[in-house]
């Protein structure tokens, strides 16, 4: 199964014919014309929502149900000049092999080489060039695919591709899975403005059945100030009216600690505790908090009332980092300050399982300041020990370490620093040695590379509870609610 992207090198290239003629030579193939939706793309891009367009295109293409898909890019013209610059992003969104299409009158080596260079730094495969003479293709280091009217050498375009989940594919898969899950997610910070907006969006998109814990008048006042329309399906529950029904169950859960009804009523004034009790009593499937609460305030009630999942000794976290062309998993960047080697091994296994659950092939790199035996010291030894424990527990997983970040992520560096490693140069799951390293790294990548990070998603709990950054955007909260709904569906199996 493969995706092929027809990239117009000049405005005169007949990309429609190139796409159709290549598709005709591939088994079970169809053409998906992104250019057909150019007006929609221009409108969304102008509103700063280009990612929404990519997600819509991924969904429409998936609906074709074909083994091989030939995607026609946007030809630059006066109307869509800016949009055509999104072709690189589109190729990455589809994780597609790029075929450069050139008209015969503009088939110069310089043009093709510049088009190829525009993908510098991106994880992309080049399928070749069509419409240019063979010497032009050779000069650019690309396969020669013949003329647009009579393609040749196209069989290689349908070869299986390396497994790499693009951000657009990840977002589309996540939204579809959340819709199918249909879970009830409680939001203890019910009158917090970003949370109100996110809940309304989730209901409009059918991602989850959200429950806002707050007096209705407060939520309606916030919505009015924001200009947000509250869907009728959105539940708004007054916490004061719920407390009493959870007093006795909470005392039962905490009887070993001697919890009295009076103390239970006092603790249930905290909406996070109240929401967690709703989960404990199966009145909610998941919980999302943290827009105003700390991580500790979100996790502590879950550890007391929900407990860890069978076989889990700790709770850890991952972020899904939506880099250009690829989604990576970072753990643990939010919970455990200084994990022991045993805990670090468990974090690695939990993170690999989370990656797998969301369609990412787990190749786990245990990150250190040293690769292999190039350095020594207690910190390196701890990572080496954790790697050995994780491998012993899960020999079916691709796990390697200690690895420096560049050795784990860059193929050329991996060749020199870790030759023969099953992970180096193509890691998808990065396990950091401590919270200081992990949190600093994810924030540096997120902010300086302008990368969307989804999470943190907590791992190891019997039912899903997820924490937000207090600087979370509305979009972050929507994604976290969707993740929580998917986790709830998985934990119910």
Automatic annotation (TrEMBL):
The keyword Nucleus does not apply. GO terms for molecular function: phosphate acetyltransferase activity. Keywords: Acyltransferase, Transferase. It holds the Pfam family PTA_PTB. Its EC number is 2.3.1.8. Pathway: Metabolic intermediate biosynthesis; acetyl-CoA biosynthesis; acetyl-CoA from acetate: step 2/2. Residues 173-485 form the Phosphate acetyl/butaryl transferase domain. NCBIfam families: PRK05632.1 (NF004167), PRK09653.1 (NF007233), pta (TIGR00651). PANTHER family: PHOSPHATE ACETYLTRANSFERASE. This is Phosphate acetyltransferase. It comes from Neisseria bacilliformis ATCC BAA-1200. The lineage of its organism: Bacteria, Pseudomonadati, Pseudomonadota, Betaproteobacteria, Neisseriales.
């Amino acid at each position: 199964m493969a995706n092929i992207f027809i990239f117009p090198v000049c405005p005169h290239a007949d990309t429609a014919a190139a796409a159709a003629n290549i598709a005709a030579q591939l088994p079970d193939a169809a053409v998906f014309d992104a250019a057909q939706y150019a007006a929609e793309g221009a409108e969304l891009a102008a509103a700063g929502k280009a990612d929404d367009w990519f997600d819509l295109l991924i969904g429409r293409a998936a609906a074709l149900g074909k083994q091989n898909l030939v995607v026609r890019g946007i030809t630059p013209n006066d109307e869509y000049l800016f949009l055509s610059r999104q072709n690189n992003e589109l190729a990455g969104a589809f994780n597609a092999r790029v075929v450069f299409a050139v008209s015969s009158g503009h088939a110069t080596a310089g043009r093709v080489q510049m088009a190829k260079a525009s993908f510098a730094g991106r994880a992309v495969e080049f399928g070749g060039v069509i419409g240019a003479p063979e010497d032009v293709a050779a000069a650019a280091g690309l396969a020669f695919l013949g003329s647009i009217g009579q393609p040749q050498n196209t069989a290689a375009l349908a070869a299986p591709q390396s497994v790499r989940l693009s951000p657009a594919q990840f977002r589309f898969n996540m939204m579809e899975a959340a819709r199918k899950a249909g879970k009830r997610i409680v939001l203890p910070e019910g009158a917090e403005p970003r949370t109100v907006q996110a809940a309304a969006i989730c209901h409009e998109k059918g991602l989850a059945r959200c429950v806002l814990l707050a007096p209705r008048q407060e939520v309606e006042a916030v919505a009015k100030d924001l200009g947000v329309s509250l869907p009728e399906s959105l539940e708004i529950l007054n916490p004061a009216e719920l407390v009493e029904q959870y007093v006795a169950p909470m005392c039962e859960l905490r009887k070993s600690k001697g919890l009295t009804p009076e103390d239970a009523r006092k603790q249930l004034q905290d909406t996070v505790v109240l929401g967690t009790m709703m989960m404990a009593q199966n009145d909610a499937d998941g919980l999302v908090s943290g827009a105003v609460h700390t991580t500790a305030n979100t996790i502590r009630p879950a550890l007391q009332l929900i407990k860890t999942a069978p076989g889990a000794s700790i709770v850890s976290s991952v972020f899904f980092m939506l880099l250009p062309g690829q989604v990576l998993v970072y753990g643990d960047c939010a919970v455990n300050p200084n994990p022991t080697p045993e805990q670090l091994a468990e974090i690695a296994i939990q993170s690999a399982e989370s990656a797998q659950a969301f369609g990412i092939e787990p190749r786990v790199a245990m990150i250190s300041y040293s690769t292999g035996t190039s350095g020594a010291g207690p910190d390196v030894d701890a990572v080496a020990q954790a790697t050995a424990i994780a491998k012993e527990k899960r020999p079916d997983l691709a796990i390697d370490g200690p690895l420096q970040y560049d050795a784990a992520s860059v193929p050329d560096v991996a060749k020199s620093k870790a030759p023969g490693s099953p992970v180096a140069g193509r890691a998808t799951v990065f396990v950091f040695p401590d919270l200081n390293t992990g949190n600093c790294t994810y924030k540096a990548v997120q902010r300086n590379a302008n990368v969307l990070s989804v999470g943190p998603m907590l791992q190891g709990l019997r039912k899903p509870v997820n924490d937000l950054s207090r600087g979370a955007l509305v979009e972050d909260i929507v994604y976290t609610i969707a993740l929580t709904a998917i986790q709830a569906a998985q934990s119910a199996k």
